[in-house]
Amino acid sequence: MDTDPGIVCFQHCSLGKMFCLGLPDSCPFCGALLATAHFTLLPFRVPYPFVRAAQHPCSIVIRPSTGDFLNDYPSCKDLHIAVTSANGQVVEFDSAGLQHGRTDMWQQCLVVKGASRPWTEHWDRTLQEVSSQDCWTKQR
């Protein structure tokens, strides 16, 4: 499943750089037709920053609490944070308490690298110890 929509960056006029999902026919800032326009910054495809959490073991992952980053995330809204186990299982805390394995909700997230390969066993052991504490119930 490829979730990369193809984010394009370019600059045509002095009004600023434009990021969009594909090259439009005209400049969104000044309205000039781009087929014959001079570009200050030629269009290029931006590397896709989002990942599937399950493909990044022993990491910290971040996503919007509702929706996704590209379609409906204003920067003033909350983010949801989780960690992944050595096999990519997502462990998160929400209003229902500690949750394990809801990877389908983590298809478009940002990853903060966690433990490197020599530390994966320790990572999982610590994650298991912390997860088993009763402070992670929904009543807390």
TrEMBL record:
Pfam families registered for this protein in UniProt: DUF4796_C (PF16044), DUF4796_N (PF22795)
Residue ranges of domain MKRN2 opposite strand protein-like C-terminal in the record: 43-140
Protein name: MKRN2 opposite strand protein
PANTHER family noted in UniProt: MKRN2 OPPOSITE STRAND PROTEIN (PTHR33963:SF2)
InterPro entries xrefs: MKRN2OS-like (IPR032016), MKRN2OS-like_C (IPR053921), MKRN2OS-like_N (IPR053922)
Every MKRN2 opposite strand protein-like N-terminal domain range: 5-32
Domain of life: Eukaryota
